[in-house]
Design brief:
Helix 1 packs antiparallel against helix 2. This protein has 5 helices and 6 strands; from the N terminus they run αββαβαβαββα. The chain has one domain: Glutaredoxin (3-Layer(aba) Sandwich). The protein has a 6-stranded mixed sheet with strand order 1-2-4-3-5-6, with helices on both faces.
Length: 124
């Protein structure tokens, strides 16, 4: 079921922006339209705003990757903090910032590093 939604999402993103990067249950977004499509096309979305230059973000990356592999029903969306248009809107204070969306609605925002179990509990 989630795979069908991901294919639909990929098609929507391709039409709306001309480019997308989707792999399994992971998506890199570059525009608000891409993010809106992801949020409305998936029941649970884990949004991560992080930067390659941020040591806390680098420490969190393997934790999020492990979680992504365990939670196949969740779409993991990433915004690069250097993309100021989106990053400033979704993580105006701290990197990394994580947001959990359910049925398109924001239900939780956390800043800074967390353990895999803490993040898993946010998604449930």
């Amino acid at each position: 079921m989630i795979e069908n939604k991901l294919y639909v999402l990929a098609a929507m993103l391709m039409l709306s922006s001309g480019s997308y990067a989707i792999e399994n249950n992971r998506l890199q977004v570059h525009t608000q339209a891409e993010l809106d499509a992801a949020l409305t096309s998936n029941p649970v979305v884990f949004l991560l705003v992080s930067a390659k230059w941020c040591p806390h973000c680098r420490a969190l990356k393997p934790v999020v990757e492990q979680l992504r592999q365990e939670l196949k029903n969740v779409l993991f969306v990433h915004i690069d903090a250097d993309d100021k248009t989106l990053a400033d809107k979704y993580a105006p204070h701290v990197y990394p910032t994580m947001q959990i969306y359910k049925d398109g609605a924001l239900v939780e925002t956390v800043e800074g590093t967390r353990s895999k179990e803490q993040l898993k509990n946010l998604v449930k």
